[in-house]
């Protein structure tokens, strides 16, 4: 009986270790599934936004009020997707939304009478492109 006792004491520990491995596998599978769903939601929005950001950036001085409204709508669309995402996906969406917000602020400044700051516009475009590329790399 004394020889069996150490073996019997190890069985619960082995079972706990196996449970831990199963929990890790389930967590990884759930994380992968969440990432796939996140990509399905985020990728189209960011891809469509890329052409939109380029177009608005080029025409920001033609109709800054309209650009501001369109950029506000684009930012809101990105922000709607953000709460459902985590990790790198969330970071990429947040970065894209920040770039759109920079363009929206520039459109507001132009609507208020300022001249277009090409550096701000180019930096926002570059930031949006970086976010879109990051998202593409993740997905």
Topology overview:
Elements (H helix, E strand, L loop, with lengths): L3 H55 L5 H18 L5 H25 L6 H21 L1
Helix pairs in contact: 1-2, 1-3, 1-4, 2-3, 3-4
Quick structural overview:
The chain is an all-alpha fold and 139 residues long. Helices cover 86% and strands 0% of the residues.
Largest sheet: none
Unreliably modeled segments: 4-33
Structural class: mainly alpha
**How much helicity do the residues have?**
over 70%
Head-to-tail CA distance between termini = 57 Å
- Arithmetic mean pLDDT: 76
Please report the total strand number as a whole number: 0
**Helix count, per DSSP?**
4
Description:
- This protein is an all-alpha fold and 139 residues long.
- It has helices at residues 4-58, 64-81, 87-111, 118-138.
- α1 (4-58) packs antiparallel against α4 (118-138), α2 packs antiparallel against α3 and α3 runs antiparallel to α4 (118-138).
- The radius of gyration is 24 Å and the shape is elongated.
- The model is unreliable at 4-33 (pLDDT under 50).
Entry keywords:
139 residues; mainly alpha; 86% helix
